[in-house]
Amino acid sequence: MEREERSEIPPGTLYMLILKSLARLGPMHGYGIAQHIQQLSEDVLQVEEGSLYPALQRMLIKGWVAAEWGQSENNRRARYYKLTPAGRKQMAAEVSEFERVTRAITQVIQPA
Questions:
Q1: Per the confidence metrics, is the pTM higher than 0.70?
Q2: Taking Cα atoms as reference points, which of 12, 11, 22 lies closest to residue 86?
Q3: pLDDT given at position 45
Q4: Rounded to whole angstroms, how far apart are CA atoms 64 and 69?
Q5: How far is CA 82 from the centre of its chain?
Q6: 61/65 Cα distance (integer angstroms)
Q7: pLDDT tops 50 at residue 82
């Protein structure tokens, strides 16, 4: 049986996926966020470090997440990110826009 390729995360949805993960599970380190997204998507979505950590850094600057250093499960120093009230508001906006675009795409691709 051929293994399906992992899909690229659609542009503009990474913030939403990160914010939603933090809203569901509370404070997490970057690797935990990436694992959560991969597991919930049944391995379809894989967040690469090269896009995850720059996105988290931009989100810190925008005030959507806050971060503090802590110990990971395997006793390593890790930066834990948590959702801020501004991040919760942004998440709602991102989800709303994603649903709007998804509805529009669905209308276009549905059989006539």
A1: yes
A2: 22
A3: 92
A4: 17
A5: 12
A6: 8
A7: yes
